Amino acid sequence: MSSFQQTVVYDALTTEPDQLSRYVDESICDPTYTIQPPVYPTLLPADSADAGCECNYGTIWLDVFLLMEATASMQFGIYGATEYVVVALLKLTIGQEEQYQTRFGVIRYATEVQLIADLDTYNSTEDLYDLDIETYDDLGTNIEGALKMATDRFKSSVHRIAARPVVIIVGNSYRSGAYNDPSQAAAGFREDGGIIITIEYVQEHGLEVPYLRSLASPNYNLTNEKNDGTRLVVYDLRDLLCKANCFCRKNWLEYNLDKWNAPQGGCYYPVSIPDTQPLAQQACRRNHNSTLTLVEDSAKNSFLTSIFPLKTEFWLGLTNDGGGWKWQGGYSINQAMEAVPICSSIQDLGMLERRRGRN
């Protein structure tokens, strides 16, 4: 059968060897927050209904570069802009661990580009208090050079392969000059899975920077000049870092993407191997650090069944304890579903079958 996956640590069920030949199946598995190296950050707890991408600031797991405009026009604003980013990061755990911490680097740019701090510089959140970025005495804005420098550092050993690369570009101007347009470099970074957050830090009597926001990932642009009269607050940046922290590893299928392309419905990976449900659960856990999927509603049921050819059977995280069908975690079908999928039993195993004309 085929499988999908959700990451969790649990005791796998076992099956007697003489029973293995009685079942031939495929399984479905789906990911959670419990992660062990070298796995990628994942999403949904297997013992509850789909809660989407919940965020804990203290365990955000990203590699982030701040690209700070350091032109003469930022002379009176660079301190406030730097302080805004630092205060936003104080709720995160800055450090060098492989998991559950954020690595943070700093690049300043004008016509020239300079690496101020690499991703392996800061060992604690408190280290950020000492961040001081000086301005250049020119007006050039070589964003492309800053992006390329960040991209090169993401390709080096200071970047963790399991951490999503993020750049935060802060500026109040853009001027063409003896450097390339940054749009191509920005597009390449986004296409490779990176997130670009832009912050238009408009100075008093200054102008908005629409070009800057064009470099951002969809809905990842912030400004201190809001049309609704509200102020830019640190939560705005923290929230975008939470969104960036919610993503699927390569080759996994995303479900229910929000406007930040965060998979609020989870990440799924079909596995086509002959297995019983207990062995499917074990394969999900051992090979993909995940678990058999849950089905919370009819929309998710349709999503899962659309992945396989007609009349394909696959395993879900559903069992019958003698008192009724239960999802992993012990809650009943009715607590987790709007519409019950077609289920049949092979002893105590839950199985969903897609047939023409049926959901």
TrEMBL record:
Cited InterPro entries: C-type_lectin-like, C-type_lectin-like/link_sf, CTDL_fold, VWF_A, vWFA_dom_sf
Q: Which domain of life is it from?
A: Eukaryota
* Species per Swiss-Prot/TrEMBL record: Cylicocyclus nassatus
Q: Which CDD domains match?
A: CLECT (cd00037)
Residues in C-type lectin domain copies:
263-334
SMART domains named among the record's database cross-references: VWA (SM00327)
**Gene3D superfamilies given in the database record:** Mannose-Binding Protein A, subunit A (3.10.100.10), von Willebrand factor, type A domain (3.40.50.410)
Biological classification of the source: Eukaryota, Metazoa, Ecdysozoa, Nematoda, Chromadorea
Name by which UniProt lists this protein: C-type lectin domain-containing protein
* UniProt cross-references to SUPFAM superfamilies, sorted A to Z: C-type lectin-like (SSF56436), vWA-like (SSF53300)
The VWFA domain sits at 63-241
One Pfam match: Lectin_C
